[in-house]
Write a structure and sequence with these properties.
Layout (H helix, E strand, L loop, with lengths): L2 E2 L8 H17 L4 E5 H4 L8 E4 L6 E9 L4 H22 L8 E6 L1 H4 L7 H14 L1 H7 L1 E4 L5 E5 L13 E6 L4 H29 L7 E9 L5 H9 L9 E7 L7 E5 L2
Parallel strand pairs: 1-9, 4-9, 5-8, 9-10
Antiparallel strand pairs: 2-3, 3-4, 5-7, 6-7, 10-11
Length: 270
């Protein structure tokens, strides 16, 4: 994956991922680093890295974690995407749950048009969609798919067996955005590259300042990318080509491995 699609609640960076990083680092390098202090809490009078780790017989370690989001309103829009799904789930339960066989279904919606509608309209839009499906239920049960033009272009379907595996839910409802060609993803990556480079440069400068009083420690910067990117090699290239302050010993890239983004692996880039 390489990018985080959903905003992760909570301010504690240790619980949001740095504990997992420490576990992975210890396993990879046969170390025993553990949390000593959350520096951004214990030393609020000055800007600090996130955490200080200690290990028996090794240098102390400080870690700073920075997220780069592109576009800047990505999470705002993605939250709206989830708000629609909540509204659609309620309408689905009311209008379709008892009318359809128990199975796994998916609603795919045109995100760009969805974002033009405020949150206050989502319940009404969802109800229009479910009632359209209900009014055309016989056709849907034959074809297992229905395309809807209004109020928002979307597609409702039964997820085919060949798109499932042993980990798939047996029944329920899923949401997805409109399919995009790989060429579109690549074009978006090219547009994002200068913005990501600029944001990375800003974070590197701030991290350099935070590391000044920890010269004797191993100093690590972890980078998280928020957005919708398919080309991890481009992100790695941006990091490798950046003007990295010598005080930063290592840079790692966070990579969410599963759909729920609860499993995060970390790849050393520098």
């Amino acid at each position: 994956m390489v990018s985080f699609h959903c905003f992760r609640d909570g301010k504690c960076e240790w619980n949001k991922g740095l504990k997992d990083f420490a576990d992975q680092f210890n396993e990879t390098y046969k170390k025993d680093y553990s949390l000593s202090k959350c520096l951004d809490i214990s030393k609020k009078e000055t800007k600090q890295p996130e955490v200080l780790l200690e290990a028996s017989g090794d240098q102390s370690m400080v870690i700073e974690c920075k997220q780069i989001v592109y576009p800047k309103d990505y999470y705002q829009k993605h939250r709206h995407f989830h708000d629609f799904f909540s509204s659609f789930q309620k309408a689905f339960e009311r209008d379709l749950r008892n009318a359809l066989p128990e199975d796994l279904y998916q609603i795919t919606i045109n995100e760009s048009i969805l974002y033009q509608n405020p949150k206050s309209k989502l319940d009404g839009l969802s109800r229009e969609i479910t009632l359209y499906i209900k009014n055309n239920l016989e056709d849907f049960l034959i074809s297992n798919i229905i395309f809807i033009n209004k109020p928002i272009p979307c597609c409702f379907r039964r997820i085919p067996d060949n798109e499932r595996d042993d980990t798939s839910d047996k029944s329920g409802l899923k949401l997805s955005g409109s399919w995009k060609d790989t060429a579109i993803y690549y074009k978006e990556m090219m547009e994002a590259e200068p913005v990501i480079s600029q944001e990375l440069a800003r974070h590197l400068a701030n991290t350099e300042k935070k590391f000044q009083e920890y010269i004797d420690c191993v100093k690590i910067l972890i980078v998280e990318i928020g957005g919708d990117f398919l080309f991890p090699e481009k992100i790695i290239e941006i990091i490798e080509n950046a003007n990295i302050p010598p005080i930063i010993d290592q840079i790692w890239l966070a990579d969410p491995e599963d759909e729920s983004e609860n499993i995060i692996t970390y790849h050393r880039v520098v």
